[in-house]
Amino acid sequence: MKLGIQINEGPYTHEASNTALNFCKAALEAGHEIFRVFFYHDGVNNGTRYTTPPQDDRHIVNSWSELAKENNIDLVVCVAAAQRRGIVDEGEQERNGKDGNNIAEGFRISGLGQLIEAGIQCDRLVVFGD
Amino acid sequence: MAILHTVNKSPFDKNSLEACVRLAVKGSSVLMIEDGVYGAMKGTVKSDVVTGAMGDVTFYVLGPDLKARGIGEDKLIDGVKVVDYSGFVNLTTENDKVQAWL
């Protein structure tokens, strides 16, 4: 089955990002396809490569990047939510005249249309967060 | 149409479990995850929320989240089914829709 994931909560807030990660891994193991993970609201904070947890703590951002790389998953960060929270890629850096960017590997910034498309294309849309 | 409802907040913190159970139609499934697993414990002031709807709704709880909170399966309301992440995925695909109560 084709599954879409929406995450509304940042890493290390409660548990949603971890739950979604574990859900995605179990779904992939069962032979399902993760069509897209859409990071919305505070969920966009999962997409900054400047995240530096203590070495003995789980690295949620890197876990997403690795999972995406291994399984060719589309990680999409909502542009409006990202702008409010300072999540920037090269395009947004240029467009908004910022002095740098912080998007993590495997993530891309795009619009709400990507969430709608996931809702249409996927057999199930599963939402995690606050 | 069968719906899987997910509840991720404790019933002692938010009213999402109660709202979900009130509106879930007969034949629905409710999966308690994250802090929502506290709703599956027996002998609490909130246990009636689950026991009262048990005839119409099937209740599940995510095992790893129980373990993370030190809740043994002996503390659960009778009839609540424990699933792991692969069980969560199966519930997602077996039901027609998934509704998260956030």
User: Biggest β-sheet of chain B, characterized?
Assistant: 5 strands, parallel
Helix percentage of chain A: 25-40%
Strand content of chain B: 15-25%
Give me the CATH superfamily of chain B: DsrEFH-like
Task: Compute the CA-based radius of gyration of chain A.
Answer: 14 Å
Task: Describe the 3D structure.
The complex is a heterodimer of chains A (130) and B (102). Chain A is of the alpha/beta class and 130 residues long. Chain A has 5 helices and 5 strands; from the N terminus they run E-H-E-H-E-H-H-E-H-E. In chain A, helix 1 runs parallel beside helix 2. Chain A is globular and about 45 Å long. Chain A starts with a strand and ends with a strand. The model of chain A has no long low-confidence stretch (mean pLDDT 98). Chain B is α/β, with parallel strands linked by helices. Helix content of chain B is 28%, strand content 22%. Chain B has helices at residues 16-23, 47-51, 63-68, 85-94; strands at residues 3-7, 29-32, 58-62, 81-83, 97-101. In chain B, strands 4-3-2-1-5 form a 5-stranded parallel β-sheet. In chain B, helix 2 links the parallel strand 2 (29-32) and strand 3.
